[in-house]
Amino acid sequence: MVVVFGSVNVDATSYVREFPRPGETVHSSGFRVALGGKGANQAVAAHLSGASVELVARVGDDANAEVPMRAFAAFELPTDGVAAVPGEPTGVAQITVNGTGENTIVVTAGANAAFGADVVEAERERIARADVVLTQGELPIPTIDALALAVDAAGTRFVLNLAPPVPVAIEAVALADPLVVNVHEARMLGLGAELPDDAGADAWRDAAASAVGALARSIVVTLGARGAVAADRAGSWAVPAPDVDAVDTTGAGDAATGTLAAMIAEGRSLPDAVRLAVAAGALAVERRGTVDSYATRDAVLGLAERMEDA
Ligand code: ADP
After folding, report:
1. Residue nearest to atom 26 of ligand 1 (CA)
2. pLDDT, tens digit (0-9, with 9 covering 90-100), for 48-78
3. Domain that includes residue 152, residue range
4. CA 85 to ligand 1 centroid distance, Å
5. CATH number for the domain that contains residue 282
6. How many domains does the chain have?
7. Which pTM was predicted?
8. Whose CA is nearest to atom 23 of ligand 1?
9. Which of 293, 298, 218, 247 has its CA nearest to residue 50?
10. Which listed residue, 40, 176, 199, 258, has the most CB atoms within 10 A of its CB?
11. Which is the catalytic residue, given 62, 254, 272, 309?
């Protein structure tokens, strides 16, 4: 069982030819509303990967809350840990994509910012029942710090995706098993800071291996089209990504992280779970959208098997 403590957003995307200048109004050529927030995305990915998932999250008491609640119902994701915060808006990401594919994003954390450490306290029983507790960098920092300690005290495994790379306590990062970061986030933590931009997977694997124990209990660094590396006390591994036609990399990291947590929860070793996570990430970039682009467990297992044969 995977319990995800995380953010929920409504992603509202407008497609325009050119971004409006200050004071200017432009018309869009299209508009899309979709489920977003790293917590929600990763919960869906873990659920599709076959884990029993419980999401603990906060939405607002506004009409926008309908968007995530309907999406969770469509995925048959349990929502008894999702509550509405009176007087707060549901988290919103207002995204604008221009004709050349660049974007601007305005995030209103709303109810996600009201997700306090008191929620961690109230959820101790759920934390104790979980095999894995997963969180990201989109909750208030004191909440993440309290969660790390509560999960450790319960003897449950803590998976921390430090995205965005907010300054949580080093003691909280130290409890992560694994800490999951992309290369930018890794560098913000000082991991691989000395590596050149074109550093290969082997260099990243060595960097992760030398930081194990000091930075976190175990470490996974995702390398985009180059796959991912992982290290724990037992060893270190590089998992190349399969060659795929990348059409939209949005949410690939969330697909990989949610799948990783699900596979660890079912008892797989770190290198095995990372191989499946890389497969899930690769499948997610082949299709447009965020959670709509996530693959089923069977598809992930199938691709991972072909990766092993390759
Ligand atoms: P983030 O989205 O957090 O920046 P990454 O870009 O590292 O994370 O991507 C996460 C995972 O998604 C990678 O480990 C890989 O498995 C997969 N992935 C991302 N981009 C590609 C790509 N172009 N081709 C194949 N797999 C990809």
Report:
1. 282
2. 999 999 999 999 999 999 999 999 999 999 9
3. 2-7+37-90+113-309
4. 34
5. 3.40.1190.20
6. 1
7. 0.97
8. 225
9. 298
10. 258
11. 254
